[in-house]
Amino acid sequence: MVKSFLIGTRNAAPHLHEGIEVLRKGGSILDAVEAAVTGIEESTESGNVGVGGSPNILGVTELDASIMDGTTLRTGAVAAVSKYVNAISIARKVMEETPHVFLVGDGAHRFARAMGFKEWDLSTGRTRMIADVIAKDIAEELTDDFRGKEYYVEMIRSRKLHEWYKKLSDDQYGTTNVIGMDSKGNICVGVSTSGTSLKYPGRVGDSPVIGAGNYCDNRYGGVACTGKGELSIRLLTARMTVKYLEEGMSLEAAITKSFNEILALNDPGSMQCIAVDKNGNTLSASTARESTHWYMDVDMDEPKERPGIWVKAD
Ligand code: GLY
Questions:
Q1: Is residue 59 within 8 Å of residue 126, measured between CB atoms?
Q2: Where are the domains of the chain?
Q3: Which residue has the higher pLDDT, 220 or 313?
Q4: Catalytic residue selected from 175, 193, 196, 287
């Protein structure tokens, strides 16, 4: 029997204890994952999650989040949420209070209001500064033909959006991942992000797309992704990795197979993940760098860093 634990990405580490505290008080693994992710969403530390999350090309922060319950395979997700900070909690309410799994934009706002969530200004000095830089940068990028027009429309028409995205570095894809497993083997995965910085308005990444950035099944394990969501959406990376676990692969073999599939796309951008198997083994991986993840169980006072793997092109 494993001790109940949480794992998370680096940006989740300072908030794992908030989830562990919930477990110590008898809360469920869903409660614990939600609490840890909420801690990140409500702090400005990350810069890619919740308040202060990187803005889109119009200077607006838009949040995506999802939660999955590995016991029932029920899920909830939201995308393009710009008026509320508690994206993971709204996603959980979608799972528990609606017959749906995914609400976006105005519909998600309407639902959040109905559920009593507090509106939140997601902008910070940093996001406002980024918005100013974008406006200046775009003004320099575009020719006189575009001035005075809706530049993001013109960027699509002129295919300049492709060039713009090629300039973005891997750092533009920050996300928080938290996976929990209780002593009975119940797994929950929570993912929350402001998505890729400087994204096109309404762009949705892998974080709220169940199967792409989030998947779990108590019988096999759970996976959460960070990185360029355009890659994992095409391959359903989280779902496929759990499928490989189902087929009997080890955690390392399953992730390696999934990440080789990402590399074979031969597209710019990288993918990272954290994962657990049904026995409580944990691992993280990256296609671009050394990888670590953070582990904390109910008997620990502080989270501990654990090494992951770097999956390189063959
Ligand atoms: N993985 C986060 C995103 O692509 O939005």
A1: no
A2: 5-121+169-310, 137-166
A3: 220
A4: 175
